[in-house]
């Protein structure tokens, strides 16, 4: 799977550049427009060019289906799907590169307080400047590490009032219960961090390389953030309670089914996203219940040009995309 993913990446980067023609007919073709916009360099006439054009046309058909008013009755705030930088990948290629996380069976959260908490209409840890910028996992299937490191950064910022970017590469290289850029689980990584008390160093000291490497060790005197404990629950059917925990614990790491996210452009995802088939990991930073459709505010790791400045909105209440199935937060 990794080899396949990497070979796609290499093709993007190395295949010979031949400028597409510039006659008006070609300039009007959506595929050529896509090639220019995303800097693709497939030689016209090559097999690769034909293959990519085929996947692109398939993606256009997918967008019609996903946006279809028959299957997803159009309403305001509905998610919108269309051309983005993943549009020349087949769904299989997309899955092999970007969808490398699993759901884990967790205990159901048990409500302890008798009274229902009063929740604000809108809450987002970004508003307090306690969330690091959106990252880009590139061709590394390390979403699980991005998800929990994001959560630890925020937990540390909430405690210390100091927002530091911590090393995702360290978790990818060192969490031996996971498979680095070939995939992993948020819960295994938290289990490892809680057991070993490894200190995560700054991202600038242990830079992201988009591939699994050898685990580096740092003297215990160096700056680093270790976790003291973590919580992990299944909040399916109790997303109200999950909102309370987001306020109490900080941003929440979650696993989701992100197959339809290949084509996501914006809006609130309400359909075409199953639960119980998780393949990706993300970080929930907040929620918004001010409009007709309440939604989770979710930070992804596919760069800031994907979705809504790197974020995606997911409807609250029906475990859409399995957002409430595998939820965790670290305590630092
Ligand atoms: C293509 O044509 C447009 C409009 O005539 C022109 O502005 C542009 O520079 C041309 N691009 C190339 C690569 O020749
Ligand atoms: C969507 O919103 C617009 C403007 O707010 C409104 O005119 C329109 O009726 C709404 N459509 C639906 C289907 O609710
Ligand atoms: C979470 O709980 C729901 C409802 O109890 C269940 O259907 C679902 O399978 C659970 N999810 C996981 C990942 O175990
Ligand atoms: C984390 O580690 C502490 C200390 O070893 C332990 O008491 C706690 O149960 C662990 N947390 C989880 C969720 O396993």
TrEMBL record:
Localization of this protein: Lysosome
Molecular functions per Gene Ontology: cysteine-type peptidase activity
Enzyme Commission no: 3.4.22.42
All residue ranges annotated as the Peptidase C1A papain C-terminal domain in the record: 119-331
Record's signal peptide: 1-18
EC category: hydrolase
One GO term describing the cellular component: lysosome
Domain of life of the native organism: Eukaryota
InterPro entries: Papain-like_cys_pep_sf, Pept_asp_AS, Pept_his_AS, Peptidase_C1A, Peptidase_C1A_C, Peptidase_C1A_papain-like, Prot_inhib_I29
Reactions this protein catalyses: The recombinant human enzyme hydrolyzes synthetic endopeptidase substrates including Z-Phe-Arg-NHMec and Z-Arg-Arg-NHMec
Principal localisation: other
SUPFAM superfamilies to which the protein is assigned, alphabetical: Cysteine proteinases (SSF54001)
Start and end residues of each Cathepsin propeptide inhibitor domain: 31-94
Keywords: Disulfide bond, Glycoprotein, Hydrolase, Lysosome, Protease, Signal, Thiol protease, Zymogen
Gene Ontology process terms (BP): proteolysis
Similarity section: Belongs to the peptidase C1 family.
Function recorded in the entry: Proteolytic enzyme possibly involved in normal cellular protein degradation and turnover.
Name by which UniProt lists this protein: Cathepsin O
Lineage of origin: Eukaryota, Metazoa, Chordata, Craniata, Vertebrata
